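FW: tagging you since you asked about this chain on Friday. Here's the raw sequence from the shared folder, copied in full. Didn't touch anything.
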Amino acid sequence: MTSTATPLVDEARIARLLVGAIDPHVHSGPSIAPRGLDHLALVRQMSEAGFAAVITKDHDYAGVATAALITANFPELRTRIYSGIALNNVVGGLNPWAVEHTAAMGGKVVFMPTLAAEHHLRWEKTSSWVHPASTQKVRPAVGVPVLDPDGTVRDDTKAILDIVAKTGMVLASGHLHIRETWVVFEEAKRRGVDRLVLTHPEDIVEATLDDVRGLVRLGAHVEHSLCMFLEGSKFKTRTAEDLRALIDAAGVDRTILCSDLGQTGVFSPLEGFRRGVRLCLDLGYDDAAIRAMVSTNAARVFGLEADVAAVTGALSAPAQTVSG
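HL: got it, structure written out here
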């Protein structure tokens, strides 16, 4: 009797933990790469599960205009949609005009170069796969350097950091090598950036647990891509124990979980979160810790506390009765 009831209890517990959740790094479409769902379908799916917000990420365009359209035309969807910009070739690399425009349109995050990061291009040559969103489908990507040859921060990188500091957006490390991330984040702190996110230290960027600990001491939060830890994901490169070690290195209060999903040939972002919460439960994290990692930490960093309150408050409010 107990064995048959437990999965149902777990599913209900997982569903409760996802009310008010935030996916701050999700790859819905349209995109040059094949996507399993578009931005509107994503928001509809997440709304049914009670998510507070999603932040879409495309490697080649800022999704802020699409987010504004969905918000204006589908007010019944309780999940709010936001976006940001990744500083790759298609947006002009380290383009201050593009960053300022993204901020003016309500953008939440600026990613340092991802597919056009010099490190990413070196990594891809030695990895066993080509990124599904590779700009080689247009023309080969050209590296966007963020440091000068002497290892100091370039002036155009500094211009981006100043905009991020002024507008209060989040600065995410993208696919920079971890050594570059250290230099850029230290400069960002000096220039007044106070929202720093280390992007998936578990893959591509060659970070160590000591890097995670050190960047947290610098003031960064650490974002983990659930797709890289989950059984059945074609992006799985790490184990559950790797996730535990990474969370413990940063601390629960500095850890943010994202799906990094939306591609074809793999489960949906929502299913990724369901499996991710189950994985955290299996690892022994309690509900408060999981809630922090899937909701409240991201809400604090990305400025989405009101969205979380709107969803959780609406779902917990007592039903109104009408007297006859």
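FW: Confidence is low (pLDDT under 50) at residues 1-5, 317-324.
HL: agreed, and The first strand starts at residue 22 and ends at 26.
FW: great, closing this out.
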